[in-house]
Structure formats: structure tokens, C-alpha cells
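Check out a protein:
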Amino acid sequence: MDFLDPSGAGLADDEENVRPGPWWRHALWVVGVTALGVGLGWAGSLFRLGPDDYGLLGAAPGSPWTYLATWAVTGLATTAMLRATAAKVPIPSPGTIAVILLLVGTRLSLGWRPEALELTAMAAGALVLAGIWSAIALRTNSGAQEAKGSGAT
């Protein structure tokens, strides 16, 4: 019996499973995936691929804390949405989707330093994409739930 898989069902082999469990495990997952996505985006923005001689621009000047905080809050909302869906129906790769959305958003924000309107649009885009991913999972599994409930096989 594994800490991450108390049922012993072998969740590591099947990525698309319903993920029930106590609320603290869901909360820990949400915080961990958010930290991973934002951390990878921040780490990716710390370096450049070449010196100034090659014409590569460095990160825009200014404090990164506003952008990191924005993406942390966006990440908590995005991962909570995906995890809530995963607790009800099987959803493919909720952690991978969340990390990719947060990594790309954080990396772009720290390199480009957009104004508040653009930053809001980027965060809203990440939330919409996570919502679409969740809606697709809910929609594709609602037919299976109805068929299972009616006794059809």
C-alpha cells in the first residue's frame, strides 16, 4: 500500500483515474502543482541562451513579485478546478496541463513584463483553458455515467 495510492489500484500505471480522497490531499496537490509550475516558469526566465552580442534580449526590468503572485493565484484556481474535476470523473493529465499552463504563463510574464490588462488576459486564458479541459472530461464522462446508471452496458 502506497501513501499516494492508498487503494492499491496502481494509479501510476493508469493516468486517467478518478482521484477521490481527503480534502487535505487535494489541497496539498493543488499547492504542490502550483509551486512546481510557477517555479519552473521562474527558473526558465532566469537565463538567456546567449550573450548580448547575438541580439538576444534579456528579461524586462522591474520587480518580478507581482507577476509571480499573479501566477500563483491563477495556479491555485486552475489546479483546484482541475483537481475538483479529477475527484468526480476521470480526466487525462490534470497535473501536466496545470504545470504547462503555469510554466508558459509565468515564463512569458517574467520575460515580457506585460501591463495589467495583458496580464489579466493571460491569466484568464489559463483559467479558460483549464475550464475547457475540465468541461470536456465532464462531458465525455457524463454519457458513460448515465449509461452505467441506467443499467446499459
Q: What stands out?
A: The CA atoms of residues 37 and 99 lie 4 Å apart. Residues 1-14 have pLDDT under 50 and may be disordered. Helices lie at 23-44, 65-88, 94-112, 116-150. Residues 116-150 form the longest helix (35 residues).
